[in-house]
Design a protein that fits this description.
338 residues; 8-stranded parallel β-barrel; 11 strands
Amino acid sequence: MWKIGDIEIDGRVVLGPMSGYTTPAFRDFMKPFGVAVSYTEMVSDMGCIHGMDTTRAFIEYPPNRVTGVQLFGSRPENLVKASEFAMKVNPDIDFFDVNMGCPVPKVNRSGSGSALMKDPKLCGEIVRQLKRNCDVPVTAKNRLGWSSGTINFREVIRELEEAGVDAIAIHARTREERYAGSPHYDMIEGLRREMSVPLIVSGNIYLLEDAIEAQRITGADGVMVARGGIGNPYLCTQIDHYFRTGERLRNPTVSQQVDWCLQLADAVIEELGTDAAMRRLRSYAPHFIAGCYRSREYRNMLTQIQSRDDLVEILERIRLKLGDDVINNDGRIDQPTV
């Protein structure tokens, strides 16, 4: 058990914010698998200030404890206004998170995301003003630094802690690296012992062993599952169960993956309507069968689905061939059924 401000967190699994993925339906789907904390997709401060419908849609969601709204922007006063708007739209927001780690150029050009790490004092001032004006906890998510030549995460952490931040998530790469290569957990070895607030670690958590190793090296309170959880929700269950009991759960079967994909599909259809849901599911569904025998062919088919019936037909074909096979850690089934 650990805390974000005064909120007790029961579990180590944190579902990372991912644009185009972590919608309310996806968060609700993932939570029963052992997710203790979730974030919304990134929410623009200016979108909040101007009351844009697309921005409002990110903030209007039914309670899914514990969930934070992730804001991005570069000016403290604008982020404060954004938080005020968000709380009016949704008084059930548990906490705000400030994105200081997004490496996308169009975000960085405005001085937001990872660009904030170029100015540690500004990072601290953003959190300080949000804390001064919000009645909920404030967290931040950052990286090691802007580039290999500007590794300054400790300086940023110091400013954030002095500003009263309630927790910090760190992605163990620089902005320059984006998502390429291996994360540098060795650079944040024992970091939690240096900090006065909870630490969440992020970067390449695709397997249970990844989570175990990242937590062992850093001492983190939480482990963030992001891309590794898309199409593999049971990873969250494996991580949660291990840290509670020390037991390593067996990987799921292909048939279980099919069931979960259909469960998510129905939730997304209910949330978005059929046409919009199909566009979203063309991205979600292929991940559920990645690595299966003939998976490239099936994945290509899933990227072209037009209806729920299309989805069901393809998935049931996969279940008929491979349903009882167990997914390997490398994403392949134990014994491909020929």
